[in-house]
Write a structure and sequence with these properties.
Number of strands: 9
CATH class of the largest domain: Mainly Beta
Helix content: 40-55%
Organism: Chryseosolibacter indicus
Keywords: Membrane, Transmembrane, Transmembrane helix
Strand order of the largest sheet: 1-2-3-4
Structural class: alpha+beta
Oligomer: single chain
Protein name: PH domain-containing protein
Distance between the termini: 21 Å
Number of helices: 3
Number of domains: 2
Order of helices and strands: EHHEEEEEEEEH
Strand content: 25-35%
Length: 150
Amino acid sequence: MIEASPVKYYLAKYFFLAFAFIQWIVGAIILFRFEFNSKVFFVSLIFAALGLISLYVFYFINDKIRRVAIGKNKIVVIEGDRNVRFGWPEVKSLRIIPFLNLYRLKIKGKRNCIYFFPSRQIDPAFGLLTKDTSKMGEIVKKRKREFGFE
């Protein structure tokens, strides 16, 4: 089973939450450190709004990014202590999102997509297209041909 680094997963999953807290801390420091006037209040309000936007983005992507291990016979979605296993025939589509270096996985019978990282960095080919040259990419390419999904 081949899986991406857990560091990539946790960094991508909790980046926007950490960014929101940093924005709120900076806004609070500006508000309490400087003399109160409309300019200081407006700047701290901007930082608070950026924090709220980042928190909304975190809430939106939090349950979509998962840790996934890919093997020759199955795909395992790691959810804390649980491992959910899917066979390759259950996969509806699996493709790379070019600029984000993420895989997008759709399972038959499931409503939402699962996003996960490849096992190593994907290098862009010809500037726009991406091709996963890792061991994970080889397994995905072989299974795509075998089962005929996108």
